[in-house]
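Final report, results section. Input specification for complex C-07:
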Amino acid sequence: MTVHAASAEIASLDTQFADLDLAGRLSLAATLGRAVFTTSLGIEDQVITAAIGTHRLPIDVSTLETGRLFKETVDLMSETEERYDITIHRFHPQQDDIDAYAAKYGLNGFYDSVEARHACCHVRKLIPLAKALSGAEVWITGLRRGQSGNRATTPFVEFDAERGLIKVNPLADWDIDRIKAYVSAEAIPVNPLHARGYPSIGCEPCTRAIKPGEPERAGRWWWEGDEKRECGLHVPESPNGAQATENAAQPVSQASFAASPVR
Ligand code: SF4
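Structure output:
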């Protein structure tokens, strides 16, 4: 299997993944080429990291250390590394890029316009992501169909033509209740912010707690008002560094989410 797999082969793989458990899906993904899992330390990502660590799978675990993360997220990195005896590779933005961004937009200029926000995500996330995926043939993510309307058709396997690699979403068919049950059963460490109403956690200045009944990702870049918003990691970038927006969403009960076990 090469990264130039034909669409028919991708479809065949997608069918194979559907019949496997999580460890089986990750194991199969690792046979397709050099595999990198990018984690944001969110609850679903912790499930994948736990499986990689527990089963000692040959998959690199990487994260985008944007410099604007919550302390709780940074602390969870170390806790997770110790718990599973793994290394989470941190990819940071370049200081020159941050300086140039701050000079043009202001350090927190992302509040002022969608363009400025996309530019910040480009510097702090997309450029480091490209480094994290350098040399990878398989990109593993924690995308789930239940996270948003735009992600409702997320396949197990797809070909990322922009990056030229196979993208594997082993939790595509897991809903949040299944995630929480797995975390509880396996005593997986998760971000304590989840219990405070943050089902989706990104950079601190761009994430708020959600209200009961709001979609899981409603607390991300909430000021933009657009119900279709992403950071660009999972949607193609346009030539000017901005990216297509997306979303619509499936409501989640904050009370239900906050009841999930946290450590
Ligand atoms: S989420 Fe906010 S702080 Fe983080 S990279 Fe994007 S705009 Fe910048």
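Residues 237-263 have pLDDT under 50 and may be disordered. The longest strand covers residues 59-64. This concludes the modelling results for the funded period.
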